[in-house]
Amino acid sequence: MSHHHDTTHIDWDEMGALLERNAQFQGPLYEQAAAWLGELLPAAGVRRILDIGSGPGALTLLLAKAFPGAEVVAVDATEPLLARARDRADRAGLGDRVRTHHAELPDGIDKLGEADLIWAGNSLHHIGDQRAALGGFARLLRPGGLIALAEGGLPARHLPRDIGIGRPGLESRLEAAAGEWFIEMRAELPGAKDEVEDWRALLAAAGLTPSGTRSFLLDIPAPVPEAVREHGVAEFGWQRKMLDGRLAADDVAVLDRLLDPEDPQGLLHRPDTYLLTARTVHTARRD
């Protein structure tokens, strides 16, 4: 799951701290998702779980807690993130049930082994041929097993439409620029194929039986704790870097003010900063 173009390359190791911050705040959202999976797939029958694109392992641990009889394997292409996952599991006292597996996907799919539950959280879109990858995951599922695909939802929002500096609608323009970045990122993946993002249909095409889709909301209204403000700074800082050359000069100037810890209009001081997002999880079962 790696890509190497200057404008769309993601340094996942560098992103480790941001991914962990995301996990910190989105934990309640994903706890709800894990509980829902427990309703679809009784924990007593789950012996092995694959967390595809695990990053630093926050979801890996949630899955281990939701399915206490299972071995959970964190699968990622970035070894430093897997090291974070191992440390996280050890700190939580779950090191005996959490393993890590370094793999470049899709080539390494067939070496992952069978599973009762496969969680692919915002990772499938980093594989060029998503349809083929889903077919590979489906082959790993044991009879009665479930795949949970977290794709889509609503991008995080942090600010009102009009923030009193610059043109109104900054986050809408950031989202539009990020959408163009995403198109280029997808096009540059090895073996990239365009695909209509009808996840239910794609899961069915992989020979699975769709078993429900749900979205989970994270809503932290203003005024937010300092930690949420700091997270917003990290998020906007990443976008500032990722979207370099894709934004109008006046929007870049506003971003720089929002990121300035000394500016009274910055994210660390604004009374109107909030955090609102949603994640959608699509599930399907192997009969």
Layout of strands and helices, then pairs:
Layout: H1 16-40, E1 48-52, H2 58-66, E2 71-76, H3 79-91, E3 98-102, E4 115-121, H4 130-140, E5 141-157, H5 170-187, H6 199-205, E6 209-220, H7 226-242, H8 249-259, E7 275-285
Parallel strand pairs: 1-2, 1-4, 2-3, 4-5
Antiparallel strand pairs: 5-7, 6-7
Radius of gyration: 19 Å
Task: Give the N-terminus to C-terminus distance in angstroms.
Answer: 29 Å
Work out the count of structural domains. Answer: 1
Fraction of helical residues: 25-40%
- Which percent band covers the strand fraction? 15-25%
Provide the structure class.
Answer: alpha/beta
Describe the structure.
- There is one protein chain.
- This protein is an alpha/beta fold and 287 residues long.
- The protein has one domain (16-285): Vaccinia Virus protein VP39 (Rossmann fold, 3-Layer(aba) Sandwich), CATH 3.40.50.150.
- The chain is 39% helix and 22% strand.
- Strands 3-2-1-4-5-7-6 form a seven-stranded mixed sheet.
- It starts with 15 loop residues before the first helix and ends with a strand.
- Mean pLDDT is 92; it is low at 1-6.
What are the defining features of this structure?
Rossmann fold, globular, disordered N terminus, 287 residues, alpha/beta
In short:
With 287 residues, the chain is an alpha/beta fold. The protein is 39% helix and 22% strand. The longest helix is centred in the first third of the chain and has 25 residues, at 16-40.
